[in-house]
Amino acid sequence: MIRYLEGKILKKEEDRVLLLVNQIGYEVLLPIVVMETLKTKVAGDEISLYIYFQQTERQPKPILIGFNLEAEREFFQHFISVEDIGPLKAVKALNVPVRDIARAIESKDVSQLCRLKGIGNRTAQKIIATLEGKMDKFALIRKTEQEEPAVVEDFAKQVLDVLVGHLGHRTSDAKRMISTAMKRNSAIATPEELFEEVYRGEAAS
Fold first, then answer.
1. Counting Cβ atoms within 10 Å, is residue 120 exposed (0-12), middle (13-18) or buried (19+)?
2. Do 178 and 87 share a domain, yes or no?
3. Residue 46 · residue 55 · CB < 8 Å
4. Domain region containing 200
5. 12: how many CB neighbours lie within 10 A of its CB?
6. Helix (H, G, I), strand (E, B) or coil at 1
7. Is 146 among the domain residues?
8. Is residue 144, in this structure, part of any structural domain at all?
9. Tens of pLDDT along 64-95?
């Protein structure tokens, strides 16, 4: 059974990533709260995920669901023990941090639980009835600190990848071209603008 994966992002989609691990690509579904923490990550970046692995006779196709923390994966196992909440519904429902869901359960806050995608009043009451008294640990999960987008670095990496991988430049030359362009114009805000500045510099040389 797969419990943990560490590798490079091959592709990001709205609710999943394709993760390259030892020359094997794993499709991993991600709850919204997990995907939010990866919003600054791009193809080629290294990430690690704790995995909930689902495969049954009724659902023979393996499903991998990823989390940043082992405690989040453990919470997920509790969450899907609630009647009428299966893994796929649970993945979509987790649009609020786990610590906040745990606190809502312990405080019997039905309205807060109804903020979860696809969770109505009746299901919220089932969640409380099933899980109340078991959530203290998860309510203590550290609040996620959102990474500040490394805008310039991301732009530079994208442009570097294209210059080297698609246009045939040596890495050292491509880095020099990008560095020179950024010095000429520090107001660059998009990859397209950076490409234009690199082109201007090379055309003038």
1. exposed
2. no
3. no
4. 151-204
5. 17
6. coil
7. no
8. no
9. 999 999 999 999 999 999 998 999 999 999 99
